[in-house]
Amino acid sequence: PSAAKADALKRVKKLVRSRDDASQLAGAHLRLADDAMDADDVKAAIQATRDAASIAKAAGETALADEATAAGKEYTALQPEVDRFAKAQKTLAAAPEDAAACADAGRYLCLVKDKWEEGLPLLSKGSDEAYRKLAREDATSPADPAARRTLAGGWWTAAQKERVKAFKNGGLLRALHWYELALPALRGAEKVEADQRIDACYRQAPAAKTRATFVPEKSMKIFPLGHRQGMFPEQKTDDATGPFRGELVYFDQRSGSDAVFEVRSGRRLSKLRWKGAAMQAMTIEITDMSGNVVAKGGPYGGGNTWAEFTLDFPPLSRFWIKLSNHVSVWYLVDSIELK
Hints:
There is one protein chain. By secondary structure, the chain is of the alpha+beta class. It is built from ten helices and eight strands. The chain has helices spanning 2-13, 19-38, 42-58, 62-94, 99-111, 116-123, 129-139, 145-161, 165-182, 188-204; strands at 210-214, 221-222, 249-252, 258-277, 282-287, 293-300, 307-324, 330-338. Strands 1, 2, 3, 4, 5, 6, 7 and 8 form an eight-stranded antiparallel sheet that branches. It is globular.
């Protein structure tokens, strides 16, 4: 799929006519790099960042070119670790209990791929004593604030020892996860320390990228490419996360009434702006990772006309967004911005 997308982007490059076109194409190459990394295709990811940097630089988009160059350096540094992970997978296929392979595969799955459910069981029987202990404690999903704080501190310490940025970031984000769960119940010096560590996690972990993942099993389906409703624009993407990039989608309300997204960021977000059309008794819910609804907006109305709403919520780096709407057939989400 990455190769096909790369070929398509090469063809699109010939059609670039403006700086805005070039900026969008460079952004598409960066998303292609992300897709390639999701598939552990580091070479394709590095090439995509080079293409993005070249296009952005030629268009005078210096910041975007620098972002692409930095991403390419990170992927290059990660290449030996990807090879190590591939070797560990082969070893585990023949020897599932091999401690060294469990350590390598588990560490990569947890810290780089963010696949904790898959990685923790491996890490918990790996040869690395520090990670083995952390994995076993993490797997218990402690509810006690003191245990959460201790676990967060363990991940913080492990992250500081990592030299490859992707692994350090993964450890920091896991520390952040447990610190944020522990924080509401902490008091005094422990609360101060947790607050300071949380701020440090945000400074050290990548703050630029905010990722939204669509949850199809809980959501309405979107209409196919080319769908258009009345006076509203044509749908040009079949990716339900398009509104987070300013690419509108039409949801088919004959297939449900909710659109659910999981958001993860390297920084705390606290404001949502929604723009769209065709809403009636529409609500927006923000839910934290413990399942608590921390903010709710609506019900909003307005019918089949453009509308725009904002919703403030407590600062969070990981949360769920649920857009609920009740109109007979279609529901347009033009854009979702998070700050």
